[in-house]
Design goal:
Blueprint (H helix, E strand, L loop, with lengths): L1 H16 L12 E4 L6 E8 L9 E2 L4 E9 L9 E11 L4 E5 L8 E2 L12 E10 L5 H4 L6 E11 L5 E11 L3
Parallel strand pairs: 3-10
Antiparallel strand pairs: 1-10, 2-4, 4-8, 5-6, 5-7, 5-9, 9-10
Bound molecules: 2-acetamido-2-deoxy-beta-D-glucopyranose.
């Protein structure tokens, strides 16, 4: 009797373990900060280039990640501020995120000439529009299936202050028009 119960439990666990849309990404963006300050992120909102809320996000054209931050003290600018973006796709078979190769194209590049409105200055409650543009990296976008959940890590590292600002977000994305 006990073993039959356990078996049933295991089956239930298996069948419910994997969501097609992890973390409710079907309808909304999920995000969290992956750095510990000094800059703190209080909100993340995906928009189109005109600033209108957009969901699912469309990676076929440039979009903005409207990020609300509190920056207590530092000014960040070129050439110190570097950007690294990592991408994962959702694997419903393993219920996990699989890393998508970015071929070094998005690795430690000059942030200020790649979508970050520089300089970022001290101040509370500022909205920084981080531009995300995969339309000029077909090598990456061509690997991404249309209308699936994706996870992105957006890391800004400042070589001058050695400070990091990092946000992970998960979103439903359209990758083909
Ligand atoms: C869902 O979001 C939480 C943070 O809100 C995160 O810790 C967790 O790893 C996410 N789950 C998946 C499957 O990515």
């Amino acid at each position: 009797m006990l073993s039959r119960c356990l078996c049933l439990l295991a089956l239930v666990a298996l069948s419910s373990a994997c969501d097609t849309w992890p973390n409710s990404t079907e309808t909304k963006v999920t995000w969290w900060q992956c750095s510990s300050g000094p800059v703190m992120v209080t909100n993340v909102n995906p928009t189109d280039k005109k600033g209108t809320y957009e969901y699912p996000i469309r990676l076929t054209e440039p979009l903005l990640i409207a990020t609300t931050i509190n920056d207590p003290k530092s000014t960040y600018s070129s050439p110190g501020l570097k950007q690294t973006i990592k991408v994962w796709s959702w694997n419903p078979n393993t219920c996990g995120w699989t890393s998508v190769p970015t071929f070094g194209l998005l690795n430690n590049i000059d942030a200020c000439s790649n979508g970050v409105p520089c300089p970022i200055k001290p101040g509370n409650n500022q909205i920084v529009n981080l531009e995300l543009d995969f339309s000029d990296t077909p090598a990456i976008i061509n690997l991404l299936k249309n209308d699936k959940p994706y996870q992105l890590e957006y890391l800004l590292h400042d070589d001058v202050t050695k400070e990091d600002l990092c946000v992970i977000f998960q979103a439903r994305a359209l990758t083909h028009s």
